[in-house]
């Protein structure tokens, strides 16, 4: 059976548990997950007895190629999407409709209610996202590919990095290399932060030159066309200074302990706690201010989260980042990030790049 059909059937069961049999999917990424359609500006109306994609003439051919067999309702030019939604609901004689409260705007909800005053609208949250947490075999293959693309690009960058290059030039070069190897684009705007600027977890690349600091933090990922990877490494531009070595080893130890704990049945917040306690015992507890990791897939940040307040219990098929960090204002920050698959009996680290600090020394020559 088509994997998208399997996903839709699983979603129908979740929708029924929510107290209705019809869901309007307005999150474009969720539409992609459920149909294979990679365009935007389109909704999916999922009923207990079928489904219909609501779209416009720009995507007619693409819809036919990417999700053959799915019924289409193509709106005519000048017709607003709310009119298409209302018509589809009237035609199916739907009296109770579940919506994605996390993505539907209040304005659209009110417009639908205005068109269909007798319609009962039921807000739901995270139904499709719940399914997306567990990757199937094809999705894991795509994620592996996204990791490989990112690693190949970084290997070229590392071999050619020079101290006169700026953070922005390095970030641009990294995305260019990912595209050369076959990536659609970067998973996100690459972070390249030299020296003290690496204390900013989401630093925006500037004109600061690589040679102006003792080390540089690089956070990047590749989008293979649909799926995303996310990695972080610290590169040393000179000698390994004692403080860099000390902090790096703490972060490395925190990551190793956290990865070792990843397996089915373990609570996500417990994995976060292991890394956090390791860093706290070393005296840097206040310097780790973000969650340990997040899910990867069609989006670079998706469920599940490895965080102190996460209620998720890990299951086979989940793919998460593990990215502990220590950030010292005025000095810099160290973060190590890898992508990890939860397997039936433990975990598999999808990234294969070296993590040892001694292997991160650049041979820079002006």
Summarize the topology.
Layout: H1 3-17, E1 23-25, H2 28-35, E2 43-47, E3 50-55, H3 60-66, E4 71-74, H4 81-91, E5 96-100, H5 106-115, E6 120-124, H6 127-132, H7 137-160, H8 167-180, E7 185-186, E8 191-194, E9 215-220, E10 222-223, E11 231-236, H9 242-261, H10 268-281, E12 293-295, E13 302-306, E14 319-322, E15 325-328, E16 332-335, E17 338-342, E18 347-349
Parallel strand pairs: 1-5, 3-4, 5-6
Antiparallel strand pairs: 1-2, 2-3, 7-10, 8-9, 9-11, 12-13, 14-17, 15-16, 17-18
Question: Which regions have little confidence, pLDDT < 50, spanning 5+ residues?
Answer: none
What order do the strands of the largest sheet run in, or round the barrel if closed? 4-3-2-1-5-6
The ordered H/E elements are: HEHEEHEHEHEHHHEEEEEHHEEEEEEE
Q: What is the terminal separation in angstroms?
A: 58 Å
The CATH topology of the largest domain is what?
Answer: Creatine Amidinohydrolase
Structural class: alpha+beta
**Top CATH class of the largest domain:** Alpha Beta
The number of distinct β-strands equals: 18
Overall average residue pLDDT: 95
What is the share of helical residues? 25-40%
